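Summary for the steering committee. The consortium agreed at its last meeting that each partner would contribute one worked example illustrating the joint modelling workflow. Our contribution is presented below. We chose a case with several input lines so that the handling of multiple components could be demonstrated. No manual editing was applied between input and output; the record is shown as generated.
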Amino acid sequence: MTKFNVLILGNASAAPTLSRNQTAQLINIDEQYFLMDCGEGTQLRLREHNIKFQRINHIFISHLHGDHFLGLMGLLQTMHLLGRQTDLHIYSCGHVEEIVHVHLKHAKGNIGYPIHYHTVGTDQSELVFEDHKVEVHSIPLKHKIPCTGFLFREKQKPRKVNPEGLKKYKVPRFEIARIKAGEDFIDAGGNTVPNDALTFAPDASHAYAFCSDTAYLESIIPIIEGVDLLYHEATFLEEHRDRAGQTLHATAAQAATIALKSRVKKLIIGHFSNRYSDLELLLNEAKSIFEATEIAEQDRCFDLLKSQ
Amino acid sequence: MTKFNVLILGNASAAPTLSRNQTAQLINIDEQYFLMDCGEGTQLRLREHNIKFQRINHIFISHLHGDHFLGLMGLLQTMHLLGRQTDLHIYSCGHVEEIVHVHLKHAKGNIGYPIHYHTVGTDQSELVFEDHKVEVHSIPLKHKIPCTGFLFREKQKPRKVNPEGLKKYKVPRFEIARIKAGEDFIDAGGNTVPNDALTFAPDASHAYAFCSDTAYLESIIPIIEGVDLLYHEATFLEEHRDRAGQTLHATAAQAATIALKSRVKKLIIGHFSNRYSDLELLLNEAKSIFEATEIAEQDRCFDLLKSQ
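What follows is the complete predicted structure of the assembly.
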């Protein structure tokens, strides 16, 4: 893996402003693009970053509140106008298809490429996408309507061979692939050599977890444990914890507590209420609990492969 | 009337670009705001111009192609979030209500102010709104789906009294309002004095016509005849007239021909295909037929009360 980064295209909650667009992120894993949420105007944010729309084949929509998907219909339409023919996959626990269809019905329009709608359950974490490099799992969240985050995880890498072990037990070359996959070795005399005598643990697989929108929810901890980068919503400050409770959003302190308990390497927070013009307040509240926190600043790109 | 202007918030067709937003215009008539179409991102264009959303009580949607209304849902949502309670009226020949409702259903959301959906017919021009200053009439257009433009016309002004006539025929003061309204006068001796002996014609009423999207259509001429300002779509150049015909759009030359035949004072053209980076080509084509043409430049405000 040579690239794994997350570009923040918007971090506002509710209404967009001139300085903060609504939620959208582009995740680039070895030049495969995954779009995470699609607030109004996302297609222009993609243009600003010179991102070719047609390279996006997978779109994940956390839930059907407008600030997370009102830019989708325009993006689908523009992809069509630009001549797209490639299949597009949309993953959501919400019924995106009905919304797309009502637009097409009234426009008497069509989309000239296949769209595959994948329904994501909300009872437990599910594998929703995988290829040879990446797995994407859902993260059931707690919000006013069905809502899931998504975990993007590099596939587990093969174990690394221990050359001395291979030599000691006279392992033939053709056995090495199986041994890298974790199997034990049976030598010519029928003796079992345990795998850990022949290999070292693999390099860690990188992972990014996106968790928005949600109330404080400890059930996500086992799913996101140890990820390199966690995006967690932090709509409010603790002083507005009552409001967070009513709206099933999290405070900056709660986001940081989840990060701490999940032992993630780094936390980025976003989805800020427009009542806060000074985002440092939110950042400082989070850092007081989990130091390795940053603002998910719009237009900033977080690189999971560089030590942050 | 002290103000009648048209602010261009977007003039792109189909896909938005970083320099050209999709169709939206704000019409300000004596500080009453009318929003004409609402492409994606219109709420941010309004913010850029420091226009208070809540002062918009009337929204006109020409048709349900995405480039003319995909910003509506976000605007309605933001009005709600900002605490709007005032009634909002939406006028369209398309079934906007169904689209709004499907969004609210999936968001389990509500809009905290009344929305009145007014269905506009497409068979003939209809009066769709009036108050003491303004009338708005629909303009049936010819497009792939039902589509109407709108004519914003200052109400006809009272006739102006001719002081010499009043004196000559000894008209008492209490008769003047009726005479200004165009009635004849019957003098003390029972003789009828015709109104035109007592008054002059009223000042012209100002009018703005918005015509997009449409093929070349002469049936609009009697509706828009003599308006101060005509916005007419000009998606293509004559060299792409075949494409205009297929898509039921107009060329710049066709827009100018309509302006000429309608004897309007000024034409502004927009809804340009993204294939044209040099808008001068479209402008020059139109001006060769109708000299008083300008580009409906984004962020430009056209004032109907100033001689252009």
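Chain B has two domains: 4-157+203-303, 160-199. Chain B touches chain A at residues 14-18, 40-41, 43-44, 47-48, 64-67, 70-71, 73-74, 77-78, 81-82, 94-95, 98-99, 102-103, 106-109, 144-145 (CB under 8 Å).
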